[in-house]
Design a protein that fits this description.
Growth Hormone, Chain: A, globular, about 80% helix, mainly alpha, single chain
């Protein structure tokens, strides 16, 4: 009875944290996704090129990913809440300082670096904390729910920005929005408590509690080295390459969708409407993962691989006879694929590496997404600039979708191989041969002992 009551309490607290993640994603990353609306105003106000203004957003996206090692080290040494509060202050400060910029280059330190660092200090620790409350059974549901805040934020804030910019200067909007981020962000950080390490009625520490305490102490002492050790596992490289390829294909549609539509002789208005269709269907994909992501008949890694094959299949059809009706279907299907991709990548990492290595897998997943963002001009834009057509870019997208699926399948095969080897090992064989499976199995055993 006491154990089941404890689980209910933990889940309640975990869902409160998931709600905080949703709200913070709505206001912070929904704002990031609305940058395309603000870009036009910045270009007009500073009388500069689209390339220069666009680089502000690109550097901000890169900062959000590449500050991950810093945020990892901080929450390993302090707490998730402390790092998140710092992130709220940095986001608010970055937006506020950006409103006083008199030169486009000043937005690089204020928006790209300060705001981008703050966004990372929210994104990475919050999803890591969620995984501690929901290590396996509901990990897809809660991470999908938390991440969907960014998509919904984009749907709501983009038209709202258009309305506000028609009546107010962007500087005034930034100043007001910095206050909103500060107030709502700090309020959302209140529930960010770490999960209890054990649930027993005894006041004396159990052997598991002592072991866990020693393990946490070791983790703090080795907060850096554990991020190096995971690099030695083969399944890690297959997984990260799969995430990189899938994310690079996703960003092709997110970055170049309007331009891609216009290349098929679609009017600008109809091409812009595709953004709304894409955002709406991304929500559909996320909703599917919220409802069924933890009840799939196959593993999440295989589901991600299947999602990649669907993305490749719908993309290759762009080389055939195209009309507007098909482009709408293409955008809708691709939007669902994008929503599923970003909903499953974190829970798939938990499934592959276990809770014991979730911090490392989450960190490298975010970094691989950042690398995919930076690679966009070289993988897709350069072909359009050279040929004046997206045909090669479309083939590239299809290829990386397929590679993503293949790498993820190899990660599954690698995991099952090591699991088979692990079951056949004698007691004298070192545990280092199967690090990911050992950690996952250890975590499952500890959970079973706690429930008993």
């Amino acid at each position: 009875m006491a154990s089941s009551l404890c689980i209910r309490i933990h889940n309640k607290q975990g869902w409160m944290i998931a709600t905080s993640v949703f709200v913070l994603n709505f206001f912070v990353f929904g704002f990031v996704h609305s940058y395309g609306i603000i870009l036009v105003e910045l270009q007009r106000d500073f009388n500069t090129s689209v390339t220069k203004v666009g680089s502000i957003g690109s550097i901000a996206s890169a900062t959000i990913s590449f500050m991950t090692p810093i945020s990892c080290l901080l929450y390993e040494l302090t707490t998730h809440r402390i790092v998140s509060v710092i992130g709220v202050f940095l986001c608010s400060l970055g937006v506020l300082l950006s409103s006083f910029a008199t030169d486009i280059r000043l937005l690089i330190p204020t928006f790209s670096f300060i705001f981008g660092s703050g966004a990372n200090f929210l994104y990475n620790p919050l999803f890591n904390l969620l995984s501690l409350y929901f290590p396996d059974k509901q990990s897809t549901r809660v991470t999908s729910f938390g991440a969907s805040g960014a998509t919904l934020g984009s749907l709501v804030l983009s038209p709202l920005m258009v309305l506000l910019l028609s009546k107010l200067e962007w500087r005034t909007i930034f100043q007001g929005y910095s206050g909103i981020i500060l107030f709502i962000g700090l309020a959302s950080c209140i529930p960010l408590y770490p999960p209890p390490q054990a649930c027993t009625s005894s006041t004396e520490p159990t052997q598991n509690e002592i072991t866990n305490t020693d393990q946490r102490s070791d983790n703090r002492c080795n907060a850096f080295m554990k991020y190096m050790r995971i690099l030695k596992t083969m399944e890690f490289w297959f997984f990260i390459l799969g995430i990189f390829c899938g994310s690079s294909a996703v960003f092709f549609y997110l970055f170049y969708l309007v331009s891609l539509m216009e290349s098929f002789n679609i009017s600008s208005d109809k091409a812009s409407n595709q953004l709304v269709i894409s955002s709406a269907t991304q929500l559909v994909g996320r909703l599917f993962c919220i409802l069924f992501g933890d009840r799939l008949p196959i593993s999440r890694l295989l589901a991600l691989a299947l999602n990649g094959f669907i993305g490749a299949s719908i993309t290759i059809l762009l080389h055939f006879s195209i009309n507007y009706a098909y482009l709408v279907v293409f955008t809708a299907v691709t939007g669902v694929v994008i929503g599923v991709h970003f909903s499953l990548i974190y829970s798939a990492g938990i499934e592959l590496f276990g809770l014991e290595r979730n911090s490392e897998s989450l960190a490298y997943t975010i970094i691989s997404i950042g690398v995919a963002t930076i690679s966009m001009p070289f993988m897709y834009g350069i072909w359009y600039d050279t040929t004046g057509s997206y045909k090669i870019s479309i083939l590239t997208s299809m290829a990386v979708w397929t590679l993503s699926a293949i790498f993820l399948i190899l990660a599954v095969i690698c995991k099952r191989y090591y699991l088979t080897v692990d079951r056949g090992l004698t007691s004298g064989v070192s545990c280092k041969a199967v690090p990911a499976i050992q950690d996952s199995s250890l975590h499952e055993i500890q959970l079973e002992e706690k429930q008993e």
